[in-house]
Amino acid sequence: MSYLNRVPKKMPVQVPPQAKQVTKTVPSPIGGLNSRDPINAMPETDAYALINWIPTAVGLTSRSGYMEWTTGVTNPIQSIFQYFAATSTIPTNLNYGTFPTTLPGQVFFATKDGIFNTTNKGAVGATVKALSGLASAGLLVANSFTNAAGNWQIVNSEADGYITYDGVSWVSVVAGVGPTQMSGADPTKLVYNLPFKNRLWFVERASTKLWYLPTSQIYGAAISFDVGPFFKHGGAVSYIANWTIDAGTGIDDHLVVVGENGDVLIYKGTDPNTSNAWALVGSWQIGEVPKGRKAWVQYGGDLLLLSTGGLFPVSYLTRGGANLLQASDKEYTSKIQKSINADLGAYFNLPGWEVTFVYRNDLIIITVPDNSGGVSKQYAMSTITNQWTVFSGIPVQCSAVCSGFYLFGTSGSGIKLGLFGGTDAADGTAANGNPIVGFILPAFTAHGYSGFKHYLMVRPVFISTSPPVLSMQMNTDYATNAPVQGAAYAVPQTSRWDVAAWDAAVWGGSPVVFDDWYSVNGSGYVGTLALTTTTVEEAVLAEISYMMELGGPM
Protein backbone atom coordinates (compact mmCIF):
# COMPACT_ATOMS: atom_id res chain seq x y z
CA MET A 1 0.00 0.00 0.00
CA SER A 2 1.36 3.33 -0.98
CA TYR A 3 2.06 6.05 1.47
CA LEU A 4 -0.83 8.10 0.07
CA ASN A 5 -3.34 5.35 0.81
CA ARG A 6 -2.36 4.94 4.45
CA VAL A 7 -4.92 5.98 7.06
CA PRO A 8 -3.19 7.94 9.80
CA LYS A 9 -3.44 6.31 13.21
CA LYS A 10 -5.31 8.37 15.77
CA MET A 11 -3.22 9.41 18.76
CA PRO A 12 -4.96 9.00 22.15
CA VAL A 13 -6.35 12.27 23.51
CA GLN A 14 -5.08 13.12 27.03
CA VAL A 15 -8.04 14.42 28.99
CA PRO A 16 -7.08 16.19 32.21
CA PRO A 17 -8.44 14.39 35.25
CA GLN A 18 -11.55 15.92 36.75
CA ALA A 19 -10.69 18.32 39.52
CA LYS A 20 -11.09 16.69 42.91
CA GLN A 21 -11.90 18.51 46.14
CA VAL A 22 -10.45 17.12 49.36
CA THR A 23 -10.30 18.26 52.96
CA LYS A 24 -7.27 17.96 55.20
CA THR A 25 -7.24 18.74 58.95
CA VAL A 26 -4.03 19.82 60.69
CA PRO A 27 -3.70 20.18 64.50
CA SER A 28 -2.81 23.62 65.81
CA PRO A 29 0.98 24.14 65.96
CA ILE A 30 1.57 23.08 69.57
CA GLY A 31 5.23 22.48 68.66
CA GLY A 32 5.55 26.24 69.12
CA LEU A 33 7.81 28.82 67.55
CA ASN A 34 10.57 27.42 65.34
CA SER A 35 13.27 29.72 63.97
CA ARG A 36 15.78 26.86 63.73
CA ASP A 37 14.59 24.60 60.91
CA PRO A 38 14.45 25.60 57.22
CA ILE A 39 11.01 26.80 56.17
CA ASN A 40 10.68 23.88 53.75
CA ALA A 41 11.62 21.24 56.33
CA MET A 42 9.71 22.41 59.39
CA PRO A 43 7.39 19.91 61.12
CA GLU A 44 3.74 20.75 60.54
CA THR A 45 3.29 20.78 64.32
CA ASP A 46 5.49 23.90 64.58
CA ALA A 47 4.98 27.57 63.76
CA TYR A 48 7.06 29.88 61.59
CA ALA A 49 5.73 32.81 63.64
CA LEU A 50 3.74 32.79 66.88
CA ILE A 51 2.76 35.84 68.94
CA ASN A 52 0.56 35.88 72.06
CA TRP A 53 -0.56 32.24 71.64
CA ILE A 54 0.86 29.61 74.03
CA PRO A 55 1.54 26.00 72.93
CA THR A 56 -0.31 23.85 75.46
CA ALA A 57 -1.39 20.21 75.58
CA VAL A 58 -4.90 21.06 74.32
CA GLY A 59 -3.91 23.42 71.50
CA LEU A 60 -2.77 27.01 71.15
CA THR A 61 -4.12 29.06 74.07
CA SER A 62 -4.34 32.84 73.92
CA ARG A 63 -2.25 34.59 76.55
CA SER A 64 -3.89 36.41 79.45
CA GLY A 65 -3.79 40.18 79.77
CA TYR A 66 -2.72 42.58 82.50
CA MET A 67 -4.33 45.06 84.86
CA GLU A 68 -3.36 48.28 86.60
CA TRP A 69 -1.89 47.82 90.07
CA THR A 70 0.11 50.89 91.16
CA THR A 71 -0.42 54.19 89.35
CA GLY A 72 1.24 57.60 89.50
CA VAL A 73 4.84 56.41 89.02
CA THR A 74 6.66 58.35 86.32
CA ASN A 75 10.20 56.97 86.64
CA PRO A 76 11.11 53.58 85.18
CA ILE A 77 10.63 50.78 87.70
CA GLN A 78 13.79 48.73 88.05
CA SER A 79 13.00 46.05 90.66
CA ILE A 80 10.11 44.34 92.49
CA PHE A 81 10.40 42.11 95.57
CA GLN A 82 8.32 40.71 98.45
CA TYR A 83 8.97 40.54 102.20
CA PHE A 84 7.35 38.16 104.68
CA ALA A 85 7.70 38.45 108.44
CA ALA A 86 8.36 35.17 110.24
CA THR A 87 4.74 35.14 111.43
CA SER A 88 3.14 36.10 108.09
CA THR A 89 0.76 33.67 106.40
CA ILE A 90 -1.11 33.48 103.12
CA PRO A 91 -4.67 34.77 103.77
CA THR A 92 -7.28 32.01 103.78
CA ASN A 93 -9.56 34.07 101.51
CA LEU A 94 -6.94 34.49 98.78
CA ASN A 95 -8.50 33.55 95.42
CA TYR A 96 -6.24 33.34 92.41
CA GLY A 97 -9.23 33.54 90.08
CA THR A 98 -10.31 36.95 91.39
CA PHE A 99 -8.53 40.24 90.90
CA PRO A 100 -7.04 41.11 94.33
CA THR A 101 -6.82 44.52 95.95
CA THR A 102 -3.99 43.57 98.33
CA LEU A 103 -1.17 41.02 98.27
CA PRO A 104 0.18 38.88 101.12
CA GLY A 105 3.16 40.10 103.11
CA GLN A 106 4.73 43.36 101.96
CA VAL A 107 5.54 44.04 98.33
CA PHE A 108 8.01 46.74 97.26
CA PHE A 109 9.33 48.25 94.05
CA ALA A 110 12.32 50.49 93.35
CA THR A 111 13.14 53.32 90.99
CA LYS A 112 16.49 55.08 90.88
CA ASP A 113 15.24 57.50 93.53
CA GLY A 114 13.81 55.16 96.13
CA ILE A 115 11.94 52.09 97.34
CA PHE A 116 8.11 52.20 97.54
CA ASN A 117 5.47 49.97 99.09
CA THR A 118 3.09 48.46 96.52
CA THR A 119 1.27 45.88 98.67
CA ASN A 120 -2.13 47.46 97.97
CA LYS A 121 -3.65 48.36 94.62
CA GLY A 122 -3.91 52.10 94.00
CA ALA A 123 -1.90 55.30 93.73
CA VAL A 124 1.77 55.25 94.69
CA GLY A 125 2.62 56.30 98.22
CA ALA A 126 5.62 58.01 99.75
CA THR A 127 9.15 56.68 99.48
CA VAL A 128 9.92 54.17 102.25
CA LYS A 129 13.67 54.19 101.56
CA ALA A 130 15.52 56.87 99.60
CA LEU A 131 18.14 55.84 97.05
CA SER A 132 20.94 57.89 95.52
CA GLY A 133 19.25 58.71 92.22
CA LEU A 134 22.10 57.24 90.21
CA ALA A 135 20.93 55.51 87.03
CA SER A 136 21.36 51.97 88.40
CA ALA A 137 20.38 52.60 92.02
CA GLY A 138 17.00 50.88 91.65
CA LEU A 139 18.50 47.67 90.21
CA LEU A 140 18.13 45.55 93.34
CA VAL A 141 18.69 41.93 94.31
CA ALA A 142 16.55 40.98 97.33
CA ASN A 143 16.40 37.75 99.34
CA SER A 144 14.94 36.69 102.67
CA PHE A 145 17.25 35.55 105.47
CA THR A 146 16.24 34.35 108.93
CA ASN A 147 18.34 34.24 112.10
CA ALA A 148 17.67 34.47 115.82
CA ALA A 149 16.94 38.19 115.51
CA GLY A 150 14.09 37.71 113.04
CA ASN A 151 13.31 37.58 109.35
CA TRP A 152 15.28 40.01 107.21
CA GLN A 153 15.12 41.27 103.67
CA ILE A 154 18.69 41.41 102.36
CA VAL A 155 18.87 43.97 99.56
CA ASN A 156 21.77 44.99 97.34
CA SER A 157 21.66 47.94 94.96
CA GLU A 158 23.81 48.09 91.84
CA ALA A 159 24.80 51.67 92.77
CA ASP A 160 24.12 52.01 96.51
CA GLY A 161 25.36 48.72 97.92
CA TYR A 162 24.09 46.75 100.91
CA ILE A 163 20.72 47.49 102.60
CA THR A 164 18.76 45.52 105.22
CA TYR A 165 15.07 45.58 106.21
CA ASP A 166 13.54 43.97 109.31
CA GLY A 167 9.87 44.60 108.53
CA VAL A 168 9.96 48.11 109.97
CA SER A 169 13.33 49.83 109.45
CA TRP A 170 15.64 50.14 106.44
CA VAL A 171 19.38 50.31 107.11
CA SER A 172 22.12 51.25 104.64
CA VAL A 173 25.08 49.22 105.84
CA VAL A 174 28.37 51.11 106.09
CA ALA A 175 31.94 50.06 106.78
CA GLY A 176 32.86 49.64 110.43
CA VAL A 177 32.62 47.34 113.44
CA GLY A 178 29.36 48.59 114.94
CA PRO A 179 26.14 46.57 115.39
CA THR A 180 24.79 47.39 111.90
CA GLN A 181 28.11 47.68 110.09
CA MET A 182 30.43 45.48 108.03
CA SER A 183 34.18 45.18 108.10
CA GLY A 184 36.56 43.64 105.57
CA ALA A 185 34.45 44.39 102.50
CA ASP A 186 33.21 47.80 101.42
CA PRO A 187 29.40 47.37 101.73
CA THR A 188 28.74 50.15 99.22
CA LYS A 189 30.40 47.96 96.53
CA LEU A 190 28.36 44.82 97.25
CA VAL A 191 25.79 44.53 94.44
CA TYR A 192 24.38 41.03 94.88
CA ASN A 193 23.52 38.65 97.71
CA LEU A 194 22.69 34.96 98.13
CA PRO A 195 21.79 33.08 101.32
CA PHE A 196 23.72 29.79 101.09
CA LYS A 197 23.92 27.17 103.85
CA ASN A 198 22.94 29.61 106.60
CA ARG A 199 25.42 32.29 105.63
CA LEU A 200 25.20 35.34 103.40
CA TRP A 201 27.34 35.60 100.29
CA PHE A 202 27.89 38.78 98.28
CA VAL A 203 29.29 39.79 94.89
CA GLU A 204 31.55 42.82 94.68
CA ARG A 205 30.89 45.22 91.81
CA ALA A 206 33.17 44.82 88.73
CA SER A 207 35.32 42.24 90.49
CA THR A 208 36.05 38.52 90.71
CA LYS A 209 35.72 38.72 94.50
CA LEU A 210 32.96 37.13 96.53
CA TRP A 211 32.46 37.94 100.22
CA TYR A 212 30.76 35.91 102.91
CA LEU A 213 29.76 36.46 106.53
CA PRO A 214 29.87 34.06 109.48
CA THR A 215 26.85 31.75 109.74
CA SER A 216 23.56 33.38 110.77
CA GLN A 217 24.99 36.91 110.63
CA ILE A 218 23.86 39.83 108.48
CA TYR A 219 26.54 42.24 109.74
CA GLY A 220 30.09 41.80 110.97
CA ALA A 221 33.44 40.76 109.52
CA ALA A 222 33.24 39.65 105.89
CA ILE A 223 35.79 37.24 104.41
CA SER A 224 36.90 37.45 100.77
CA PHE A 225 36.82 34.58 98.29
CA ASP A 226 38.42 35.33 94.92
CA VAL A 227 37.30 33.15 91.99
CA GLY A 228 39.35 35.06 89.40
CA PRO A 229 42.07 32.40 89.01
CA PHE A 230 39.42 29.92 87.85
CA PHE A 231 37.77 32.18 85.24
CA LYS A 232 39.46 30.91 82.08
CA HIS A 233 37.80 33.59 79.95
CA GLY A 234 38.28 36.50 82.33
CA GLY A 235 35.73 39.11 83.32
CA ALA A 236 33.93 39.85 86.56
CA VAL A 237 31.38 37.78 88.48
CA SER A 238 27.86 38.33 87.19
CA TYR A 239 25.89 36.41 89.82
CA ILE A 240 25.87 33.42 92.14
CA ALA A 241 23.08 30.91 92.66
CA ASN A 242 22.13 27.83 94.66
CA TRP A 243 21.80 24.47 92.89
CA THR A 244 20.27 21.59 94.84
CA ILE A 245 21.10 18.08 93.58
CA ASP A 246 21.48 14.50 94.69
CA ALA A 247 25.20 13.91 94.20
CA GLY A 248 25.09 10.25 95.18
CA THR A 249 25.40 10.79 98.92
CA GLY A 250 22.06 12.49 99.42
CA ILE A 251 20.57 15.82 98.45
CA ASP A 252 22.99 18.71 98.84
CA ASP A 253 23.28 22.40 97.91
CA HIS A 254 26.04 23.57 95.59
CA LEU A 255 27.20 27.14 95.01
CA VAL A 256 27.18 28.14 91.33
CA VAL A 257 29.33 31.13 90.32
CA VAL A 258 28.72 32.61 86.87
CA GLY A 259 31.12 35.03 85.18
CA GLU A 260 30.26 37.70 82.64
CA ASN A 261 32.17 35.87 79.91
CA GLY A 262 30.34 32.61 80.55
CA ASP A 263 32.57 30.73 82.98
CA VAL A 264 30.53 28.59 85.39
CA LEU A 265 32.17 27.35 88.60
CA ILE A 266 30.46 24.89 90.95
CA TYR A 267 31.50 24.50 94.58
CA LYS A 268 30.34 22.09 97.27
CA GLY A 269 30.82 22.28 101.02
CA THR A 270 29.95 24.46 103.98
CA ASP A 271 32.98 26.52 104.98
CA PRO A 272 35.41 27.99 102.42
CA ASN A 273 37.86 28.60 105.26
CA THR A 274 38.23 24.87 105.93
CA SER A 275 40.03 22.86 103.25
CA ASN A 276 38.25 19.57 103.89
CA ALA A 277 34.85 21.28 104.05
CA TRP A 278 34.97 23.04 100.68
CA ALA A 279 35.86 21.97 97.13
CA LEU A 280 35.63 23.10 93.52
CA VAL A 281 33.58 20.51 91.63
CA GLY A 282 34.45 21.81 88.17
CA SER A 283 34.25 24.63 85.63
CA TRP A 284 32.30 24.94 82.38
CA GLN A 285 31.63 27.57 79.71
CA ILE A 286 28.16 28.59 78.44
CA GLY A 287 28.83 31.75 76.40
CA GLU A 288 28.58 35.39 77.38
CA VAL A 289 25.98 36.27 80.00
CA PRO A 290 23.65 39.25 79.35
CA LYS A 291 23.67 42.16 81.78
CA GLY A 292 21.31 42.46 84.70
CA ARG A 293 22.31 39.65 87.15
CA LYS A 294 18.85 38.07 86.77
CA ALA A 295 19.28 36.01 83.59
CA TRP A 296 18.75 32.72 85.44
CA VAL A 297 16.00 30.89 87.31
CA GLN A 298 15.52 27.94 89.62
CA TYR A 299 13.13 25.50 87.97
CA GLY A 300 12.15 22.36 89.83
CA GLY A 301 15.37 20.73 90.97
CA ASP A 302 17.42 22.46 88.32
CA LEU A 303 19.05 25.80 87.61
CA LEU A 304 18.57 27.39 84.17
CA LEU A 305 21.24 29.85 82.99
CA LEU A 306 20.68 32.18 80.02
CA SER A 307 23.61 33.03 77.77
CA THR A 308 24.45 33.54 74.14
CA GLY A 309 24.51 29.73 73.96
CA GLY A 310 20.89 29.31 75.02
CA LEU A 311 19.07 28.43 78.23
CA PHE A 312 21.26 25.84 79.97
CA PRO A 313 20.08 23.47 82.71
CA VAL A 314 23.10 23.13 85.00
CA SER A 315 22.35 19.44 85.57
CA TYR A 316 22.90 18.71 81.87
CA LEU A 317 25.75 21.17 81.47
CA THR A 318 27.76 19.15 83.96
CA ARG A 319 26.87 15.84 82.28
CA GLY A 320 27.88 16.48 78.70
CA GLY A 321 26.82 19.97 77.68
CA ALA A 322 25.04 20.74 74.43
CA ASN A 323 25.45 17.25 72.95
CA LEU A 324 23.53 15.67 75.81
CA LEU A 325 20.94 18.45 75.71
CA GLN A 326 20.16 17.74 72.08
CA ALA A 327 19.41 14.11 72.96
CA SER A 328 17.12 14.90 75.88
CA ASP A 329 13.81 16.59 76.64
CA LYS A 330 15.76 19.25 78.56
CA GLU A 331 16.92 20.94 75.36
CA TYR A 332 15.00 24.16 75.87
CA THR A 333 16.05 26.81 73.39
CA SER A 334 17.43 25.43 70.12
CA LYS A 335 14.14 26.11 68.31
CA ILE A 336 14.29 29.82 69.21
CA GLN A 337 18.08 30.22 69.27
CA LYS A 338 18.21 32.22 66.04
CA SER A 339 15.52 34.64 67.25
CA ILE A 340 16.85 35.09 70.75
CA ASN A 341 20.43 35.52 69.51
CA ALA A 342 19.25 38.46 67.39
CA ASP A 343 17.80 40.09 70.51
CA LEU A 344 20.87 39.27 72.58
CA GLY A 345 23.01 40.90 69.92
CA ALA A 346 20.91 44.05 69.87
CA TYR A 347 20.27 44.49 73.62
CA PHE A 348 23.01 42.45 75.29
CA ASN A 349 24.31 45.35 77.42
CA LEU A 350 20.94 46.54 78.71
CA PRO A 351 20.27 45.43 82.30
CA GLY A 352 16.66 44.24 81.88
CA TRP A 353 17.34 40.60 80.97
CA GLU A 354 15.40 38.34 83.34
CA VAL A 355 14.30 34.71 83.45
CA THR A 356 11.15 34.19 85.55
CA PHE A 357 9.28 31.02 86.44
CA VAL A 358 5.59 31.91 86.73
CA TYR A 359 4.51 28.63 88.26
CA ARG A 360 0.80 29.43 88.57
CA ASN A 361 0.64 29.95 84.79
CA ASP A 362 3.05 27.11 83.88
CA LEU A 363 5.39 29.52 82.09
CA ILE A 364 9.06 30.39 82.00
CA ILE A 365 9.44 33.93 80.67
CA ILE A 366 12.62 35.45 79.25
CA THR A 367 12.30 39.23 79.31
CA VAL A 368 14.07 41.16 76.57
CA PRO A 369 15.01 44.62 77.91
CA ASP A 370 12.60 47.41 77.02
CA ASN A 371 14.60 49.30 74.40
CA SER A 372 13.45 52.85 75.18
CA GLY A 373 10.02 52.96 73.63
CA GLY A 374 10.40 50.01 71.26
CA VAL A 375 7.98 47.12 71.09
CA SER A 376 8.08 45.17 74.37
CA LYS A 377 8.89 41.52 73.89
CA GLN A 378 9.21 38.38 75.98
CA TYR A 379 9.89 34.76 75.07
CA ALA A 380 7.55 32.43 76.95
CA MET A 381 7.92 28.67 77.30
CA SER A 382 5.04 26.47 78.39
CA THR A 383 6.39 24.15 81.09
CA ILE A 384 3.70 21.67 80.04
CA THR A 385 5.05 21.22 76.49
CA ASN A 386 8.54 22.85 76.70
CA GLN A 387 7.61 24.85 73.58
CA TRP A 388 7.93 28.58 72.93
CA THR A 389 5.97 31.62 71.85
CA VAL A 390 6.56 35.37 71.83
CA PHE A 391 4.61 37.78 74.03
CA SER A 392 4.07 41.23 72.57
CA GLY A 393 2.29 44.25 73.99
CA ILE A 394 3.25 43.63 77.65
CA PRO A 395 5.49 46.57 78.65
CA VAL A 396 7.76 44.68 81.07
CA GLN A 397 10.71 46.60 82.52
CA CYS A 398 11.24 44.19 85.44
CA SER A 399 9.14 41.49 87.08
CA ALA A 400 8.66 39.23 90.11
CA VAL A 401 6.32 36.48 91.25
CA CYS A 402 4.75 37.48 94.55
CA SER A 403 2.63 34.82 96.27
CA GLY A 404 1.87 33.32 92.85
CA PHE A 405 0.92 36.62 91.20
CA TYR A 406 3.06 37.92 88.31
CA LEU A 407 3.84 41.61 88.87
CA PHE A 408 5.80 43.71 86.44
CA GLY A 409 7.10 47.24 86.39
CA THR A 410 7.03 49.53 83.38
CA SER A 411 9.21 52.33 82.05
CA GLY A 412 6.79 55.05 83.18
CA SER A 413 3.26 53.86 83.93
CA GLY A 414 3.60 52.04 87.24
CA ILE A 415 3.13 48.43 88.34
CA LYS A 416 0.87 45.96 86.54
CA LEU A 417 -0.63 42.64 87.57
CA GLY A 418 0.30 40.43 84.65
CA LEU A 419 -1.15 37.27 83.10
CA PHE A 420 -4.56 38.08 84.52
CA GLY A 421 -7.85 38.72 82.74
CA GLY A 422 -8.57 38.69 79.04
CA THR A 423 -7.52 42.23 78.06
CA ASP A 424 -4.47 44.49 78.40
CA ALA A 425 -4.26 47.64 80.54
CA ALA A 426 -7.58 47.02 82.31
CA ASP A 427 -8.18 49.07 85.46
CA GLY A 428 -9.26 46.13 87.59
CA THR A 429 -12.81 45.64 86.37
CA ALA A 430 -11.59 43.75 83.27
CA ALA A 431 -14.34 45.48 81.30
CA ASN A 432 -12.40 48.35 79.77
CA GLY A 433 -9.05 46.94 78.73
CA ASN A 434 -7.54 46.70 75.27
CA PRO A 435 -8.07 43.57 73.15
CA ILE A 436 -5.00 41.36 72.76
CA VAL A 437 -3.69 41.07 69.20
CA GLY A 438 -1.97 37.82 68.25
CA PHE A 439 -0.47 36.23 65.17
CA ILE A 440 -0.24 32.58 64.10
CA LEU A 441 1.68 31.36 61.05
CA PRO A 442 1.85 27.53 61.14
CA ALA A 443 4.52 25.63 59.25
CA PHE A 444 3.93 25.03 55.53
CA THR A 445 2.69 21.59 54.51
CA ALA A 446 1.69 19.78 51.33
CA HIS A 447 -1.50 18.59 53.10
CA GLY A 448 -0.95 15.00 52.03
CA TYR A 449 -0.66 15.69 48.29
CA SER A 450 2.59 16.71 46.60
CA GLY A 451 0.95 18.16 43.49
CA PHE A 452 -0.44 21.59 42.74
CA LYS A 453 -3.46 22.69 44.78
CA HIS A 454 -6.05 25.43 44.75
CA TYR A 455 -7.13 26.32 48.28
CA LEU A 456 -10.85 27.13 48.48
CA MET A 457 -11.92 27.26 52.13
CA VAL A 458 -10.49 27.01 55.64
CA ARG A 459 -11.99 26.20 59.02
CA PRO A 460 -10.04 27.24 62.13
CA VAL A 461 -11.64 25.57 65.17
CA PHE A 462 -11.67 27.73 68.32
CA ILE A 463 -12.98 26.87 71.78
CA SER A 464 -13.96 29.93 73.80
CA THR A 465 -16.79 31.86 75.38
CA SER A 466 -15.92 34.77 73.13
CA PRO A 467 -14.14 33.80 69.89
CA PRO A 468 -11.39 35.91 68.34
CA VAL A 469 -11.97 38.46 65.62
CA LEU A 470 -9.98 36.99 62.75
CA SER A 471 -8.08 38.22 59.73
CA MET A 472 -6.81 35.50 57.41
CA GLN A 473 -4.37 35.12 54.56
CA MET A 474 -3.86 31.86 52.68
CA ASN A 475 -0.11 31.71 52.05
CA THR A 476 1.34 29.30 49.49
CA ASP A 477 4.81 28.23 48.40
CA TYR A 478 6.60 29.77 51.41
CA ALA A 479 5.21 33.30 51.19
CA THR A 480 4.99 34.60 54.78
CA ASN A 481 2.53 37.45 54.33
CA ALA A 482 0.50 38.60 57.31
CA PRO A 483 -3.15 39.54 56.84
CA VAL A 484 -4.30 43.08 57.38
CA GLN A 485 -5.73 43.19 60.89
CA GLY A 486 -9.51 43.17 61.00
CA ALA A 487 -9.91 43.30 57.25
CA ALA A 488 -11.57 40.01 56.46
CA TYR A 489 -13.46 37.92 59.00
CA ALA A 490 -15.28 39.15 62.09
CA VAL A 491 -16.78 36.45 64.29
CA PRO A 492 -19.69 37.77 66.41
CA GLN A 493 -18.66 38.48 69.99
CA THR A 494 -20.60 37.75 73.16
CA SER A 495 -22.16 40.73 74.88
CA ARG A 496 -21.68 42.49 78.21
CA TRP A 497 -24.42 42.70 80.80
CA ASP A 498 -26.08 46.11 81.16
CA VAL A 499 -24.31 47.33 78.02
CA ALA A 500 -25.59 45.26 75.09
CA ALA A 501 -29.11 45.66 73.66
CA TRP A 502 -31.63 43.30 75.25
CA ASP A 503 -33.16 40.69 72.94
CA ALA A 504 -30.51 41.45 70.31
CA ALA A 505 -27.26 40.53 72.03
CA VAL A 506 -25.30 37.28 71.91
CA TRP A 507 -24.63 36.16 75.48
CA GLY A 508 -21.53 34.28 76.68
CA GLY A 509 -21.27 31.45 79.14
CA SER A 510 -19.47 28.12 79.09
CA PRO A 511 -16.86 27.63 76.35
CA VAL A 512 -18.28 26.47 73.04
CA VAL A 513 -16.81 25.40 69.70
CA PHE A 514 -16.61 27.91 66.84
CA ASP A 515 -15.87 26.11 63.59
CA ASP A 516 -17.20 28.17 60.66
CA TRP A 517 -15.82 27.71 57.14
CA TYR A 518 -14.33 30.77 55.40
CA SER A 519 -13.51 31.31 51.75
CA VAL A 520 -9.87 31.83 50.81
CA ASN A 521 -7.92 31.98 47.58
CA GLY A 522 -4.46 30.57 47.03
CA SER A 523 -2.69 28.18 44.71
CA GLY A 524 0.56 26.31 45.10
CA TYR A 525 2.30 23.13 46.14
CA VAL A 526 2.38 23.87 49.87
CA GLY A 527 0.29 26.18 51.98
CA THR A 528 -0.60 27.45 55.43
CA LEU A 529 -3.17 29.81 56.92
CA ALA A 530 -1.83 33.02 58.47
CA LEU A 531 -4.11 34.30 61.23
CA THR A 532 -4.16 37.69 62.92
CA THR A 533 -6.36 37.42 65.99
CA THR A 534 -8.00 39.85 68.39
CA THR A 535 -9.18 38.37 71.70
CA VAL A 536 -10.95 39.64 74.82
CA GLU A 537 -11.34 36.25 76.53
CA GLU A 538 -9.22 33.12 76.71
CA ALA A 539 -9.51 31.06 73.52
CA VAL A 540 -8.00 27.77 72.32
CA LEU A 541 -7.17 27.03 68.67
CA ALA A 542 -7.61 23.25 68.36
CA GLU A 543 -7.08 22.64 64.63
CA ILE A 544 -7.34 24.06 61.12
CA SER A 545 -9.10 22.31 58.22
CA TYR A 546 -8.30 23.09 54.59
CA MET A 547 -10.59 22.43 51.62
CA MET A 548 -8.63 22.32 48.37
CA GLU A 549 -8.94 21.39 44.75
CA LEU A 550 -6.20 19.05 43.57
CA GLY A 551 -4.45 19.66 40.28
CA GLY A 552 -1.74 17.89 38.35
CA PRO A 553 1.91 17.55 39.26
CA MET A 554 2.76 20.66 37.21
Query: Tally the helices: what do you get?
Result: 3
CATH topology of the domain at 20-62 and 438-550: Jelly Rolls
In round numbers, the mean pLDDT is 88
Based on secondary structure, the structural category is mainly beta
Oligomer: single chain
Strand content bin: 35-45%
At the first level of CATH, the class of the domain at 20-62 and 438-550 is Mainly Beta
| Helical proportion, percent range | under 10%
User: Which term fits the overall shape?
Assistant: globular
Uncertain residue segments: 1-8, 321-329, 486-507
What is the makeup of the main sheet? 7 strands, antiparallel
CATH architecture of the domain at 20-62 and 438-550: Sandwich
Radius of gyration: 29 Å
> How many runs of DSSP E, i.e. beta strands?
42
Task: Kindly report how far apart the N and C termini lie.
Answer: 43 Å
Describe the structure.
This protein is mainly β. It has a domain at 20-62 and 438-550: Jelly Rolls. The chain contains three helices and 42 strands. The strands form ten sheets. Strands 1, 3, 4, 37, 39, 40 and 42 form a seven-stranded antiparallel beta sheet that branches. The protein has a five-stranded mixed beta sheet with strand order 9-5-35-34-33, with no helix packed on it. The radius of gyration is 29 Å and the shape is globular. Residues 1-8, 321-329 and 486-507 have low confidence and may be disordered.
